[in-house]
């Protein structure tokens, strides 16, 4: 007759090893993503496209009174309002 075996939980040491291995894999993936985006040179064309927007953002932070805020706010509202309306439509619980 087969014996009823009690299922054993993994030991404390093996759980710590698994957590350490998982943390090492996560750090390696983050380092790989950082290297790909900033150090490999593959994204340089994208960074050149984003450079004017970045320069405008730096100018806004450095000299907030020298910016045409009316035009900026209208542009921001023109982008945000349709997205907010879509989110309200999607997550409406009354429908």
Descriptive keywords:
single chain; 95 residues; mainly alpha; 3 helices; elongated
Number of strands: 0
What's the overall average pLDDT, rounded? 85
Q: What is the chain-wise order of helices and strands?
A: HHH
Assembly level: single chain
Helix content: over 70%
**% residues in beta strands:** under 5%
Give the count of structural domains: 1
Give the termini distance in whole angstroms. 61 Å
Structure annotation, total helices? 3
C-alpha geometry = elongated
Class of secondary structure makeup: mainly alpha
Gyration radius (Cα, Å) is 26 Å
Protein name: Fe2+ transport system protein B
Keywords: Membrane, Transmembrane, Transmembrane helix
Organism: Nocardiopsis sinuspersici
Topology:
Layout: H1 12-39, H2 44-62, H3 69-90
Organism: Nocardiopsis sinuspersici
Protein name: Fe2+ transport system protein B
Keywords: Membrane, Transmembrane, Transmembrane helix
Written overview of the protein:
The chain crosses the membrane at residues 20-38, 69-91. Keywords: Membrane, Transmembrane, Transmembrane helix. The chain is mainly α and 95 residues long. Helices cover 73% and strands 0% of the residues. The protein has one domain (12-93). It has 3 helices and no strands. The protein is elongated, with a radius of gyration of 26 Å. The chain starts with 11 loop residues before the first helix and ends in a 5-residue tail after the last helix. The model has no long low-confidence stretch (mean pLDDT 85).
């Amino acid at each position: 007759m087969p014996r009823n075996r009690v299922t054993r939980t993994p030991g404390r040491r093996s759980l710590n090893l698994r957590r350490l291995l998982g943390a090492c894999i996560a750090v390696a993936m983050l380092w790989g993503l950082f290297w790909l985006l900033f150090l490999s040179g593959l994204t340089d064309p994208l960074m050149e496209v984003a450079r004017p927007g970045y320069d405008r953002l730096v100018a806004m932070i450095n000299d907030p009174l020298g910016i045409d805020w009316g035009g900026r706010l209208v542009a921001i509202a023109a982008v945000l309002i349709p997205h907010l309306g879509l989110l309200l439509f999607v997550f409406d619980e009354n429908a």
